[in-house]
Amino acid sequence: MRACRREPVPYTPVWLMRQAGRYMREYREVREKTTFLELCKNPALAAEVTVTAVERLGVDAAIIFADILLILEPLGIELEFAKGEGPVIHNPVRRPADVDRLRELQDPGELHFVYEAIRQTRSALKPDIPLIGFCGAPFTLASYMTEGGGSKNYVHTKQLMYDDKGAWHAMMALISRALIKYLNAQIEAGAQVVQLFDSWVGCLSPDDYREFVLPHTKSVIENVTPGVPVIHFGTGTATLLELMREAGGDVIGLDWRVRLDEGWRRLGHDVAVMGNLDPVVLFAKRDVLRERTKQILDQAEGRPGHIFNLGHGILPETPVENVIALVEIIHDGF
Ligand code: CP3
Q: Can you tell me which atom of ligand 1 is nearest the CA of 197?
């Protein structure tokens, strides 16, 4: 929490995106008994996997176990996590008429299981471990809604954006209104920090980001409950950092494609940063892991406002002992 506010800290805090996931035996054991969506909708199990990851790894923050796509169901999107394929959306938004049939998130209570998981996690966590709530950023959610799943070239997304600006902005505004309610309900339930994941925004040019994304992300961040730090994360964003900064956030997430010192300088040292180890370094030998970790800490120069993280989520095959070693290396310092 102090690092989010750029206050001095005794050591660099660390947590890892996707820290509760398939690379961990404990998670796989829970998942054997339920589907992924059932797990997300079961507060006791979601709290269990959230807390287990924190205790196993010794990290300095918890992130609530959920998924950025859960909010799509109450908006009228039919979501499935197909085995081995990732998310599949059965009724993608491709035309203006599809935008018209989207539902407004009337009552954030439709996602009650997330808030209940937050309450249970908060009471199970040690008091000094902050709990991070999260959502997908408007663009990344819009990309899933239009593509119907993951994508390489974002053809459907950009086609709607270029050909029908009115429909695009209406969809982004509807998503944004829903996210504001959702994040603030997470905060009311006990989330102390919130993160926006704009995982796929790096497919856009800076001009397109400014016109089609920035106003919407900005409105979400501006409307988060005052006093709660916001982490604004994206990948492939080396050419978008100044614009992401303009959209807002107390902490900006950096991926490994940009040097941490250069990224921070461009953002300005009056904002905190999070990052930015390449997740694949966790597959390398221990001395490489140490060396790469040191390089990032050296680039931060002990300046207040650095939260150590990966540049993107942990990969499913990552050896858990390397993740534990990473946390120890950071806490021990150099
Ligand atoms: O970080 C955490 O520990 C909290 C849990 C979390 C999950 N998803 C659990 C999950 C978080 C923060 C997310 C965010 C999320 N979900 C993002 C943004 C982060 C990123 O990596 O860019 C995205 C793009 C999604 C959408 C999503 N969910 C995809 C593309 C997939 C399938 C691909 C994959 O990795 O399997 C998921 C499924 C998912 N979300 C799993 C987990 C643990 C795996 C599901 C399983 O158990 O089979």
A: 18
**Nearest CA owner, ligand 1 atom 34:** 86
- Secondary element (H or E) of residue 89: strand 86-89
C-beta separation of 278 from 301 below 8 A? no
Q: Is the pLDDT of residue 84 over 90?
A: no
- Sheet containing strand 272-277, edge to edge, reads 62-63, 131-136, 193-198, 230-234, 251-253, 272-277, 306-310
Our answer to whether residue 101 is catalytic in this structure is no
Contacts of 307 (CB under 8 A, 6+ apart): 3, 4, 12, 13, 14, 15, 231, 251, 272, 273, 274
* Atom number of ligand 1 nearest to Cα 140: 24
Sorted by sequence, the CB contacts under 8 Å of residue 290 that are 6+ apart come out as 329
Per-residue pLDDT tens over the stretch 244-253? 999 999 999 9
